[in-house]
Design goal:
GO terms for molecular function: 2-isopropylmalate synthase activity; acetyl-CoA C-acetyltransferase activity; magnesium ion binding. The protein has 564 residues and is of the alpha/beta class. The chain has 17 helices and 14 strands. Bound molecules: 3-methyl-2-oxobutanoic acid and zinc ion.
Length: 564
């Protein structure tokens, strides 16, 4: 059997009974380090050109990143050239520190410093693999052998740095494949490295704990981080960094729990680009903090520009449901969601803490518009359709018409199989409810009120063939219905009727909506007009026309008139 879970062994949890991180709350952003230009770039089908790297670097600076890993200059000529370009062309702002990666190998470390010559400040990031599988199967070395590689690398990093006294150096060490390394051994290697660098004596040092491969649930990674923070020497003099990958889809969760467990710094990439399933997504983690009221210390308000630049540089498109950045993440198609969003947004006042159902953050914070929030397809209900008409056309529908019209929209969506835009919704509404047949155009009306009610004289029809109708009733609608009954023999009972004044800036001042039972058939119509009475009477005529016919029929009883 090919699909056999017995091929795999469960990850052993950390035997830690005193874990404190589950009670921790993140109240401050970690130090961010963007590794898009190194780890992200190394994972691309087509690595970035120098121009693309420059564009992405400039974006990262604009967003507020203060530490940016720009490449692996000893391993790649374009990375070397890009590093030189940044330094020689003075393109690194004073408050930004570039970081470069190198393996713990003498010739690579030498070349790395050549690339950094002239930098005001820089982080030299040295790594070697420490995991059991790498030791045993890739390097064929025991723990001591691996520890020697790390210690020798650290020694060389320190030695060569002293030849460049004008640069402010930070040293960073990663026990690569940390998550697959026995914790006691990881602590030994880290201690061997910091024993050389001596952060306690003033040398800035970062210890980066990579989940090179995400191997466990994020809580286990948090245990590993907390364990290391407790066991290694010079903890207080060090910055503990984490670098998570997303193999199990939990790269962000793992980094968040790691910060709860004591990590000071987080490495990742915009949109999570990186090897295999990617690196930790900086946008998601930063926005998660933002949505909890924590300043992410990054400015992600121009999300459209971020996705545009990342897509242009990586040639990877953004998934439409990518957290915070995707095209559809602030869109509701479901009717009940649309309804809830509409109600919450209507109640919201300026200055209120954000508390809107289905929208974890205010889309406008990311440069997205409310207009994008509600979109209509066949699953949308009355709320969404009503919201779109109100938002874009200032047309408010009564509930009974919302229900009726949403069925019209739904059937159109089912027929065309996709999304229905606001223009189409309006067009459907016009066609179905607002269209006025020539023969049923209201020309003039006169309403006379007396003790018995209202007497109506109404002129309706095309210019040359208009007719005068007369009727009586308790109100205008009843009087005109009576006139229609007398003239055309149609029995009319009004089932629902609503009128609305329209907002400023619209041609018409009033909208009337009516549903009537005409000869036992339900007919609904709406009308826009300058005053509510005209709108009401026109809606009544349009509804009756649905039963009687668009062309006005021969008059049934033209001799009958109404007594005054
Ligand atoms: O994923 C990883 O382990 C790395 C290291 C080089 C930090 O990218
Ligand atoms: Zn990595």
């Amino acid at each position: 059997m090919a699909f056999d879970h017995r091929k795999y062994a469960p990850f052993k949890p950390v035997a830690k009974k005193d874990r404190r991180w589950p009670d921790a709350v993140i109240e401050k952003a970690p130090t961010w380090c963007a590794v898009d230009l190194r780890d992200g770039n190394q994972s691309l089908i087509k690595p970035m050109s120098v121009a693309q790297k420059q564009r992405l670097f400039d974006l990262l600076v604009k967003l507020g990143f203060k530490e940016i890993e720009i490449g692996f200059p000893a391993a790649s000529q374009p990375d070397f050239d890009f590093c030189r370009k940044l330094i020689e062309e003075n393109r690194i702002p004073d408050d930004v520190t570039i970081q470069v990666l190198t393996q713990a190998r003498a010739e690579l470390i030498e070349r790395t410093y050549e690339a950094l010559d002239g930098a005001k400040k820089a982080i030299v990031h040295v790594y070697n693999s420490t995991s059991t599988v790498q030791r045993e199967q890739v390097f064929g070395l025991d723990r001591e052998g691996i520890c020697d590689i790390a210690r020798n690398g650290a020694t060389l990093v320190k030695e060569i740095a002293s030849r460049y006294p004008d640069t402010e150096w930070t040293f960073q060490y990663s026990p690569e494949s940390f998550t697959g390394t026995e914790l006691d051994f990881a602590a030994d290697v880290i201690d061997a490295v910091t024993g050389v660098w001596r952060p306690d004596q003033g040398q800035p040092v970062i210890i980066n704990l990579p989940a090179t491969v995400e191997m466990s649930t994020p809580n286990v990674f948090a245990d590993q981080v907390e364990w290391i923070c407790e066991k290694i020497q010079y903890r207080d003099a060090l910055s503990i960094s984490v670098h998570t990958h997303n193999d199990r889809g939990c790269g962000v969760a793992a980094a968040e729990l790691a910060v709860m467990a004591g990590a000071d710094r987080v490495e990742g990439t915009l949109m999570g680009n990186g090897e295999r399933t990617g690196n930790m997504d900086l946008v998601t983690m930063a926005m998660n903090l933002y949505s909890q009221g924590v300043d992410p210390e990054l400015d992600l308000s121009g999300m459209a520009e971020i996705t545009e630049v990342v897509e242009a540089c990586t040639e990877i498109s953004t998934h439409p449901r990518h957290p915070y950045a995707g095209e559809l993440v602030f869109t509701a198609f479901s009717g009940s969601h649309q309804d809830a969003i509409r109600k919450c947004l209507a109640r919201r006042k300026d200055g209120d803490v954000w508390n809107v159902a289905y929208l974890p953050i205010d889309p406008s914070d990311l440069g997205r518009r409310y207009e994008e929030v509600v979109r209509i397809n066949s699953q949308s209900g009355k709320g969404g359709v009503a919201y779109v008409l109100e938002r874009d056309y200032d047309i408010s529908l009564p509930r009974w018409l919302q229900i009726e019209f949403s069925k019209v929209v739904q059937s159109e969506a089912e027929t065309n199989g996709g999304e229905i835009d606001s223009h189409t919704i309006h067009h459907l509404f016009e066609e179905r409810y607002l269209k006025v047949a020539k023969d049923w155009t209201l020309r003039t009306y006169n309403l006379h009120r007396d003790d018995d009610g209202v007497r109506a004289d109404v002129v309706v029809g095309a210019d040359d063939t208009s007719v005068t109708l007369e009727g009586r009733g308790l109100g205008a609608v009843e009087a005109v219905s009576d006139a229609l009954t007398r003239r055309f023999g149609v029995s009319i009972a009004v089932e629902a009727y609503d009128e609305f004044a329209l907002g400023e800036g619209t041609k018409a001042n009033a909208l009337a909506c009516i549903r009537l039972n005409a000869n036992g058939r339900l007919c609904s119509a709406a009308a826009l007009a300058e005053d509510t009475t005209s709108a009401t009477l026109q809606a009544l005529f349009s509804a009756v026309a649905q039963e009687v016919g668009e062309q006005m029929p021969e008059i049934m009883d033209s001799s009958e008139s109404v007594s005054a």
